[in-house]
Amino acid sequence: MKIKQRQRSGMNNSLIMKCLFLTILFLSPMISSAQVNEIIDRGIIALTVKEQQVYVSWRLLKDDPEQAAFNIYRKDIGIGDYEKVNQNPITSSTNFLDTTAAPGHGYYYKIKVIINHVEKETLGEAYVSMKKL
Fold it and tell me: Is 124 exposed, middle or buried (0-12, 13-18, 19+ CB in 10 A)?
């Protein structure tokens, strides 16, 4: 009698393990394909290239529509507010070369996205310090 109970118990454990294995095997593709949506900024980078040149780069986000355009704004530390530095919206890249930076100044850069002719603020900014030559 005890032998039959042990055999049934062993069969039940084996059946439970098989069901658990098959469940994990079945669900693993669904779990691994689930995406986590994070709120991230543009990842703006500003680098001094030459005496009066700053290379500004930023991220294209997953939610940006194909026709998104961008304006670049610069703020001279301690002097005034942000001013647009590009003449026309940037439509074909996510970088810009600012050739109007002054040596000896520090700047903050930020990017605004243009969607359906409406300019919107985006998260993030970058800082660069221009060396005085």
Answer: middle
pLDDT score of 77 more than 80:
yes
Strands (E), 77-105: 79-84, 95-98
Positive or negative CA dihedral for 62, 66, 68, 70? positive
Q: How far is the C-alpha of 27 from the C-alpha of 9, rounded, in Å?
A: 27
Greatest Cα pair distance, the chain, in angstroms, is 96
Query: How do the residues of the chain divide into helix, strand and coil, expressed in percent and rounded to 5?
Result: 25, 35, 40
Q: What is the pLDDT of residue 120?
A: 95
Q: Domain span at residue 20? A: 1-34
- Which amino acid makes up residue 37? N
How many domains would you assign to the chain?
Answer: 2
